[in-house]
């Protein structure tokens, strides 16, 4: 297939490009480099089936030639990034998604949206099932991301209903791995960086909030299977292995042999207190479940941060 990937220079997008090329597809990669890096795609420079175009998808543009699928992954994703770029985040979820849906419609291509567990907000249902409508503060600091993604989901369903577009919606839960930026503020690179430097590890709140961490290869596999499926409603993709942030900090400290002290800082506003995906639908519909253990995934991530420190900043 000829596949357009937006947000291709980002953490997940670059791994998706690798997977699509490995499956034999050709990839047109679009990114405006707002939060991504050219370096994440540098290893693909000599690949004849790969092309990168620096493009802001909120601006109108056209693509020459056939397109069979559009994977729309462009958006700031780290709380630090979307708090710094709230307008851009809302624009990429709305105008950007609209442009990519139009592209898919014109080309007769399928379309996959990278959505998020943030659609559930600070959830009152646990674990989160796709039928739960969520508990999102529409005017809080995180609303630029949450509402942008909720709008993008609604727009995707509207294109499916109105034009019969073959669409998929992946609700992605916390994912980690090589090519995350050490300074992007998300908890995995933050703790790893602090532990490796022997600096205090910053626990927000009392650390009792929970998250469930998925290794990037598992996520990419789930997204690829979803793209090939006929499922039109959202599907959770994530690792149901849940732990408190305090437990996670201890885990990183043990793995790195670090003596970093733990310091407690205020919990950011609207930070979800619990999060764990119910992946029954992904199991049943896609035959998918995560395979990489937290130990193995963190080993690979640590190796990247240790050997490729330049690439990580
Ligand atoms: P990332 O910031 O590393 O990648 C996002 C990419 O989108 C960046 O390369 C950025 O430059 C690009 N981008 C932003 N605005 C753009 C625009 N207007 N035009 C073109 N490109 C633009 O983040 P990531 O973690 O790789 O996330 C990728 C996707 O997955 C996002 O849509 C995100 O919302 C979703 N997601 C990720 C996670 C996770 O844990 N990593 C969780 C839930 C959802
Ligand atoms: N967190 C933390 N210390 C940090 C960064 C994050 O305690 O230095 C917490 C954050 O408050 C949240 C969890 O770790 O409860 C996951 O944060 P992240 O930014 O990775 O993603 P989120 O799930 O909030 O989108």
Mean pLDDT: 96
Structural class by SSE content: alpha/beta
The level of helicity is 25-40%
Q: Spatial order of the strands in the main sheet? A: 3-2-1-4-5-6-11
Write out the distinct hetero groups bound to the structure: nicotinamide-adenine-dinucleotide, uridine-5'-diphosphate
**Termini, distance in Å?**
33 Å
| Spans of at least 5 consecutive residues with low confidence | none
Number of H/I helices: 10
| Sheet of most strands | 7 strands, parallel
From the spread of the alpha carbons, the general shape counts as: globular
Which radius of gyration do the C-alpha atoms yield? 19 Å
- H/E order of the elements? EHEEEHHEHEEHEEEHEEHEHHH
Description:
- With 313 residues, the protein is an alpha/beta fold.
- Helices cover 39% and strands 17% of the residues.
- The protein has ten helices and 13 strands.
- The chain has helices at residues 11-22, 79-84, 86-107, 143-163, 187-197, 216-227, 245-256, 280-286, 294-307, 309-312, and strands at residues 2-6, 26-31, 50-54, 69-72, 110-116, 167-172, 175-176, 201-204, 210-212, 214-215, 235-237, 242-244, 262-265.
- The chain has a seven-stranded parallel sheet with strand order 3-2-1-4-5-6-11, sandwiched between helices.
- Strand 1 (2-6), helix 1 and strand 2 (26-31) form a beta-alpha-beta unit.
- The chain is globular.
- The two termini are 33 Å apart.
- Bound molecules: nicotinamide-adenine-dinucleotide and uridine-5'-diphosphate.
- Uridine-5'-diphosphate (UDP) binds at residues 79, 174, 185-187, 190, 202-204, 209, 211, 245, 268, 271.
């Amino acid at each position: 297939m000829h596949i357009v990937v937006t947000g291709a220079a980002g953490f997940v997008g670059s791994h998706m490009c690798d997977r699509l090329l490995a499956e034999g597809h050709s990839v047109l990669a679009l990114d405006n480099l707002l939060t991504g890096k050219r370096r994440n795609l540098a290893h693909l420079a000599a690949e004849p089936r790969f092309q990168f175009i620096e493009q802001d998808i909120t601006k109108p543009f056209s693509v020459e030639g056939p397109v069979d699928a559009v994977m729309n992954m462009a958006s700031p994703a780290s709380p630090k990034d979307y708090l710094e770029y709230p307008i851009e985040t809302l624009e990429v979820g709305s105008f950007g998604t609209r442009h990519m849906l139009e592209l898919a419609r014109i080309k007769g291509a399928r379309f996959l949206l990278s959505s998020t567990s943030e659609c559930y907000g600070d959830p009152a249902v646990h674990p989160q099932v796709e039928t739960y409508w969520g508990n999102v503060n529409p005017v809080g600091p995180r609303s630029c991301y949450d509402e942008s993604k909720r709008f993008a989901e609604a727009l995707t369903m509207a294109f499916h209903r109105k034009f019969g577009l073959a669409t998929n919606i992946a609700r992605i839960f916390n994912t980690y791995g090589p090519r995350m930026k050490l300074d992007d503020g998300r908890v995995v690179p933050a703790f790893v960086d602090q532990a490796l430097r022997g600096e205090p590890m910053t626990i927000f709140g009392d650390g009792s909030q929970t998250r469930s961490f998925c290794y990037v290869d598992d996520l990419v596999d789930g997204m690829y299977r979803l793209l090939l499926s006929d499922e039109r409603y959202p599907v959770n993709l994530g690792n149901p292995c849940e732990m408190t942030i305090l437990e996670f900090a201890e885990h990183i400290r043990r793995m790195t042999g670090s003596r970093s002290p733990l310091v407690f800082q205020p919990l950011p506003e609207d930070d979800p207190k619990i999060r764990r995906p119910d992946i029954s639908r992904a199991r049943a519909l896609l035959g998918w479940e995560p395979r990489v253990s937290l130990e193995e995934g963190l080993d690979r991530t640590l190796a990247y941060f240790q050997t490729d420190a330049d690439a990580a900043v």
